[in-house]
């Protein structure tokens, strides 16, 4: 069996604190390492178009919901795990760049909406495609069946951890 760098770390822990070694440690370390590789790809692609990863996340979330490409700032913040202060800073910069606009709700003045501008739709689509291509390049050496199996297993793992999607139509 081929070994990865996590195996080396686990071997060291097995000598130092053997009671800490188990599937949970190995899984956590491998997911953390994989997340780091994916973050590198996202950072490189977003930087190439002058965006931060947080700005990319906002643009892609708005584009993903479809026409009219609008969400409330609180929904963006909770969906992207940002604080209200963090989302405000990101939105301010995106608005200055002309890729989003903020608009009061006509039915409730207390509610504001964040909406992609036409320029924002173009930028969002361009960067989502660039990131997706970069992720595909990262995983290109991995056999397709292994990718499919890993997707299925990670989905099952997340569901077991309570990260289940809302029922369809809810």
TrEMBL record:
Pfam families referenced in this protein's UniProt entry, alphabetically: MarR_2
Domain of life: Bacteria
All copies of domain HTH marR-type, residue ranges: 24-163
Protein name per UniProt: MarR family winged helix-turn-helix transcriptional regulator
Organism: Dactylosporangium cerinum
Taxonomic classification: Bacteria, Bacillati, Actinomycetota, Actinomycetes, Micromonosporales
